[in-house]
Write a structure and sequence with these properties.
Blueprint: H1 6-12, E1 21-26, E2 29-35, E3 41-49, E4 56-67, E5 73-86
Antiparallel strand pairs: 1-2, 2-3, 3-4, 4-5
Amino acid sequence: MAGLNARVIKLLSRTYEPKRIVGLTFGRYDLTFKTDELGRAILLFIGKKDEVTGKIKGERYARRLVFDDHGNSIKDHWDNKGKATALL
């Protein structure tokens, strides 16, 4: 997977329950992501879930969020951190 699809980014832009680990299926991919204290997705594992261990084998992404003094978003993008296997 070269980069995140716009539809995946839209899915991750939603607000979820704060400080939780969320698991979803999107097309042929399994997604597991962690949310921050405001319910924004900040860490993503995307790939194929191993049915036995529950680990996702694929790519790991971290979200970069930067705000100004007034709370306006300056940066909001996902950085690919490479191959990963996660058990979350």
